[in-house]
Write a structure and sequence with these properties.
The chain contains one helix and 39 strands. The protein has 645 residues and is an all-beta fold. The protein is globular, with a radius of gyration of 27 Å. The chain starts with 26 loop residues before the first strand and ends with a strand.
Amino acid sequence: MRNIACKIFFTVITIAFSSKLHSQKGFEVLVDIETLNYTEGLVLKRSARTNLELPFFDDFSYRSTIPAPWLWTQSGVYVNSNYAINPPNIGVATFDAINRNGQIYPNASINPFSADTLTSLPINLFFPADTNIYFSFYYQPQGLGNQPQTQDSLILEFFKASTQKWEKVWAVSVNFTNNSLFEKNFLLDKTKTISTLNLNRKFFRVHFPILNPDYLTAGFQFRFRNIASIAANQHVPSLRGNSDHWHIDNVYLNQSRDFADTVLNDVAFRKPLVSMLKNYESVPWSHFNSTAQQTELLNPLKFSIAYRNQGPVIWNVTRQFSIENLLTNQEHSFTGGAENIFAFEDFEYTRNYLYTFNSSNADSAKFRFTSFLITDFNPETHHLRWNDTVRYTQIFSNYYSYDDGSAENGYGLFGEGTQNGRVAYKFTNYQTDLLVGVYFYFNRSLDNANQKYFKLAVWADNNGKPGQQIYEQLGLRPIFTNYLNKFTLYELDEPIEIPAGTFYIGWVQTTPDFLNVGFDLNRINNSKLFYNITGTWTNSQFEGSLMVRPVFGKLNEPPTGIDPNPYKVEFSLYPNPAKNSFNISISNSTDRTKVQIFNISGQIVNQHFYTSQPIGIEHLPNGVYIVKIIAPNGTFATQKLIISR
């Protein structure tokens, strides 16, 4: 697995580190993530049949992040359209080093360990002496994730009913140093070495017959597993996250196949839909004024799709489109006509359209863009039923966003000199409004080691770079949610009026530890991302979008970790300024009410449960401090304390 490195590979997103990190100067870092999602998407129902019938096929193109329960048993594998590079069609199943709770597996080690597993439901494969049953799939190492190391591997196993044991039938390992893959087929007793550049950008096909009668049974099952290993570096736990990505696609098991049956006679989408906006992924609906529309919308409006002929047959494809206003349930449908797509051709098509974006709500809007392909029905490929439709939901809420909501990596500053390092993200708002909160998405690190205090900050613009700092909020730490890509919402202590124009949001570090903020590799906006370690603002070298979003107007949900109906925390402190002690008077206090004192760097210098006794501060130097009162239900309030002797 990764050795955490002192140098950054500028052409590859994965970073390698060495055990000498503690002696290196600070720098910006991009690492792999540790999170998993089991929410949104299709409501998937498992078949009630005991055994599945052939064909078995899954191209992972359905709208869910979990493997289809009508085909697979419960799994920690992540179905997505973001991690792989140029897959055969939309959607892959991604294997990594985390379990279904989004945490590194408890058996994780610097030595190889069994990580994700994807197991099929029982399949009726009772076809004795049938020599035309073939199994095939595609795989890709790394993609946009983390490079598997030479000791890591992807494994295919079959269940042997006679022994009630799983047997390894195929495996692959990768060596990115010499650009090679090593495959071993244990059924055929064959090995294969593939040498090529850009291993992480290609999919490789596996195709072989199932001839052993031990597997030609009524309750046949197969499973994929990946063998992973975590970072050997023990000095920097905040940099130790997810690792060793493999992606699979087009898993296909069927009769009446042969050695030459290596293609699918099918047309499928090869790219997901993206935002209709030119600069942002999302804009507050109340800010979507005429200026915003002229800036963000193409003129004329365009609906672009990309699809692929996966086989040797010429297909005549009809393109259909629709836009549905999800708040009014009004749908606007139109066609893109029909056109031939030739053998193995990649096709891109753009359709101009007219549409008025409106909403029944004053502060939000939601539109679903859909495109689907119509071809002549082919009974041999009726199981390819998901990959001919793509959807994208365009959300206008109360925030600006550059990211697409999916974190492929984690971003932050690390190393000597970054204790007061700053990260600032450039936004241009289309309307003067109150900034009331900020969404952050934090990836988990091993043992949540990145839960370090930081200061939320806002800067004005200075000729295209961050200028004067106009806001700072202390005492914040990363808060993790239970789902992948579920943002943490921080409410500002005091709303700030931001004039229409350019501003920056971000953070000031209080430790040299890596905060691991989500980083989207599919939307390129690093020209708007700046960091400051030495006193000079520098543009980020990493292509992508930081998963940080400013919130305007009012909060549509309670801050993360806060009861939506809390009792209000009110307190007073005196004397202020104070010398050697001060008193606190709290409404609705209990013996579980917590008192925290932060210095100007955001570090906790005093913490205890509330009592009515004076709080001694003789050990603290003169200066400005923040006193934070936290109620048992998580609500809190802060006040400034001045110590002056």
